[in-house]
Write a structure and sequence with these properties.
Low-confidence stretches: 1-9
Largest sheet: 7 strands, mixed
Number of strands: 7
Helix content: under 10%
Shape: globular
Number of domains: 1
Mean pLDDT: 86
Distance between the termini: 15 Å
Length: 84
Amino acid sequence: MQSYSKTRNDFLSKDDAIHSVAHRYIAYASDLGLKPGEWPDCFDTDLGNKLTLHRFTLDVRDGDIFAAKYRQDCGCIIVEVIND
């Protein structure tokens, strides 16, 4: 199983995210410069209210982490970061 970072804080730009449906975005780990299996606890962002996105779930498939979902503080934005 892949591991994830407990301390790293990165920036997720609106240019890195693909709008999928209302208040939902998709981003690819490689576009964010993340190494395979690296899942930061949070991202600073310029999406929505510009408050921090915090990881709230990991999507595990066949024993590996496929994606991580991040929710924005005091907002309704959710970003799924896919391990590509």
